[in-house]
Design brief:
Shape: globular
Order of helices and strands: EHEHEEHE
Helix content: 10-25%
CATH topology: Ubiquitin-like (UB roll)
CATH architecture: Roll
Oligomer: single chain
Number of strands: 5
Distance between the termini: 39 Å
Strand content: 15-25%
């Protein structure tokens, strides 16, 4: 079971409270986690990545085990702690401005 923490606006869109638990088949990567998230919560399609290019949205960041994975390959395996469910995969809404 993969634990995913969503920012407040995505939790509201998905109509969930707290973190989300997902079953991911095969190798656990950012792509497979996001695929499972979008399959379980169709309202989230296109919110974290472009639906056509699959590229991460500009103001969304991905973290796992204290590491920023936002610019990592979406097909790199996630850390063992995330796969084991002891650490969550974090989706963070970034802010900009001044």
């Amino acid at each position: 079971m993969i634990r995913v923490v969503l920012p407040a606006h995505l939790r509201a869109l998905a109509r969930v409270h707290g973190e989300v638990a997902l079953d991911v088949d095969g190798t656990v990567t950012q792509r497979t986690v996001l695929d499972a998230l979008e399959a379980a919560y169709p309202a989230l399609r296109g919110t974290t990545r472009d639906q056509v290019t699959q590229q991460r949205r500009s103001f969304v960041r991905f973290y796992a085990s204290g590491e920023d994975l936002s610019h990592s390959s979406p097909d790199d395996p996630l850390p063992d702690a995330v796969v084991a469910g002891t650490e969550p995969y974090l989706i963070i809404g970034a802010m900009a401005g001044g």
